[in-house]
Specification:
10 strands, 20% strand, 28% helix, Protocatechuate 4,5-dioxygenase, Chain B, alpha/beta, 6-stranded mixed β-sheet, single chain
């Protein structure tokens, strides 16, 4: 299949699920074995990097939560605030659009938001009223959403779309810090139920051609996510797992993918992630990275726990 931004064929059937309208297309190929479409028809643009970032907790940092010290808050917020300059917003090499894979959306098949003006989805509870009055009116990009589906289907995935879903806090919170002007169009892509790391690596590989069309791929999660043990008592666990993860993401790509596929064998893996939804966006990022070697763009503590951000490709990002 030859990929084109404007012209492709998608066979679909209509259905309804959750809060939005889903349109699903079935494909016969295995998502593990079918290569991604060629981007021959894409216009030439500087290749965009791939970014996995920690998104903090709930409405942080727009509402003071008391999870972390002021210094920790400033450090993580400073990293996120610096992303706009890192990807050269305001220059011809800036991303034309962003695809975000958030830890806070899972679906039976990879599903994309298709609204031209997505609302915010306040998918948290128990926070002060200001937490539910936040705004971030970044436009959607229905054409890009269709491109994402075409690439995934070309790699053997069945896909779906959701015209009603808004940006969840895994998307709007970190991107509101990073891109406060809210001018860059955003499409959100779900995780796949079952949270298989190999499936999510394959999703990322399918999306890699978008990077050559000016699209920034962002994974939003956390390198430690154990809410039942979120505090100083888990600092050794977070340190141990994050150290392993930093070594894994900076390994040569084939070794990186092997390590990430077997992440449950890492030291303290299940103590750091009793459930792996906050780690799966990193798998998509690693897949989209292709042959680009990763580097640790930020490493610090938040709420006394070790976290890190991982970037792939790009110059100075």
């Amino acid at each position: 299949m030859t990929f084109s931004r404007r012209h492709f064929v998608v066979a679909s059937v209509a259905g309804v699920a959750g809060a939005g309208v889903l349109v699903e297309s079935r494909t016969r190929e295995s998502p593990m074995s079918t290569p991604s479409p060629s981007p021959k028809s894409m216009p030439h643009r500087p290749r965009q990097p791939v970014i996995f970032l920690p998104h903090g907790g709930g409405p942080w940092p727009f509402v003071k939560l008391g999870f972390a010290s002021d210094a920790e808050d400033a450090d993580l917020r400073g990293y996120l605030s610096g992303l706009s300059a890192a990807v050269q917003v305001g220059t011809p090499t800036a991303p034309r659009a962003i695809v975000v894979i958030s830890a806070h959306w899972e679906a039976a098949v990879p599903t994309v938001t298709t609204s031209a003006a997505p609302p915010l989805l306040f998918d948290y509870s128990g926070f002060p009223p200001a937490s539910y009055a936040l705004t971030w009116p970044a436009p959607g990009d229905p054409a890009l959403a269709a491109d994402v589906r075409a690439l995934l289907e070309g790699a053997g995935f069945a896909t779906a779309q959701d015209a009603a879903r808004g940006y969840d806090h895994g998307t709007f919170v970190p991107l509101k810090v990073a891109f406060p002007e809210a001018r860059i169009p955003v499409v959100q892509l779900s995780l796949v139920a079952g949270l298989d790391p190999a499936v999510h690596l394959a999703m990322g590989r399918a999306l890699a051609p978008l990077r050559d069309d000016g699209v920034l791929v962002v994974g939003s999660g956390m390198t430690f996510h154990n809410l039942r043990s979120f505090g100083a008592q888990s600092a050794p666990v977070a340190e141990t797992f994050d150290a392993w993860l930093r070594e894994a993401t900076t390994s040569p790509p084939a070794e990186r993918d092997r390590l990430l596929t077997g992440w449950t064998r890492a030291p303290a893996a299940r103590l750091a992630h009793p459930r792996e939804e906050h780690l799966m966006p990193l798998m998509v990022c690693a897949g989209a990275a292709g042959d680009d070697v990763g580097h640790v763009a930020w490493n610090g503590t938040w709420a006394g726990l070790r976290f890190s951000a991982h970037h792939f490709g790009g110059t100075g990002v």
